[in-house]
Every structure is written in structure tokens, then in C-alpha cells.
Design goal:
148 residues, 23% strand, 1 helix, single chain, 4-stranded antiparallel sheet
């Protein structure tokens, strides 16, 4: 038995090889494109989550500052404290700094800084505001009850 290699048989084999090579290259390009799109989508979702956490932290900080101004929370420097539900995964910390004039005199204004931290993620937000704290005024809030 003798096998002959005709020019027509060679052309058919090289055509099949070229088609196979083209299909493999197309598959590799598709997989690479899918990997790039998936990576970009994951990065976008992580960025969205960070923005949501940061926005939530700023809202909580604004609420804590408002509660201090209203007398609901005490206006004192605190170590980190947990917040109530629905923000139980967050803690807040306050720092008070009295402001002075250029000559070193007292202005009656206090800089309140609120630090909000998430317990499960590395989200930390700070918000500060200069306010005039009322001293000596009593309300029904727990923050203003005199200590006996």
C-alpha cells in the first residue's frame, strides 16, 4: 500500500489547520476580553461599596453632631462607643477643643470632632464643626442630667 501526497490533500490539511488556529486565537481573545470586563466590573462594585460606606459614615457623623448640639448626646471627649440599631456595626468617638483668639483669650466656641468607624471594614470618617455649647441649661435629655 502506498500513500500518495497530492497537492490537493496538502491544501485541505493546511486549510483545516488554519481554521483551527483561527478558532483558538478567537477563543483566547474572548477569554482575555471577558477577564478584563470582569476585573473592571469587580473594581467598580468595590468602589461603589466604599462610596456607600463613606456616605453612610458621613450621615452618621452629621447625626451625632446634631444630637450633641441638641443635647441628646453629651458634649464630652469620649473613647469609641458603639451606636444603637440600625447602626450597630459603627462606633463613634468625639473630641472637644476650645478655640482661642490670637491673643490667647477664650472665645466661647468649641471645635467638636466626631470620628466614625465601621467595625468590619476599614471605613473611617471624620467631621468637625465649631459650635457654641450651652452650659447650665437643663433639658429632659440624658446628656444634660446633672451628675450627683
Amino acid at each position: 500500500m502506498r500513500i500518495s501526497h497530492s497537492p490537493r490533500g496538502l491544501r485541505l490539511g493546511s486549510l483545516e489547520a488554519a481554521v483551527l488556529l483561527e478558532v483558538l486565537l478567537a477563543l483566547i481573545l474572548f477569554v482575555a476580553a471577558a477577564a478584563v470586563v470582569t476585573t473592571a466590573f469587580n473594581a467598580s462594585m468595590a468602589s461603589l461599596e466604599r462610596q456607600k460606606m463613606g456616605s453612610r459614615a458621613l450621615n452618621i457623623a452629621a447625626s451625632v453632631l446634631a444630637e450633641i448640639q441638641l443635647g441628646i448626646r453629651p458634649a464630652s471627649a469620649d473613647s469609641p462607643r458603639p451606636l444603637e440599631s440600625p447602626a450597630q456595626d459603627w462606633t463613634y468617638e468625639t473630641a472637644l477643643t476650645p478655640t482661642e483668639t490670637i491673643g490667647g483669650g477664650v472665645t466661647g466656641l468649641t471645635r467638636i470632632e466626631v470620628v466614625i468607624r465601621h467595625q468590619k471594614s476599614p471605613t473611617v470618617q471624620r467631621m468637625a464643626q465649631v459650635v457654641r455649647l450651652k452650659t447650665g441649661s437643663l433639658t429632659n435629655s440624658p446628656a444634660s442630667t446633672p451628675q450627683i
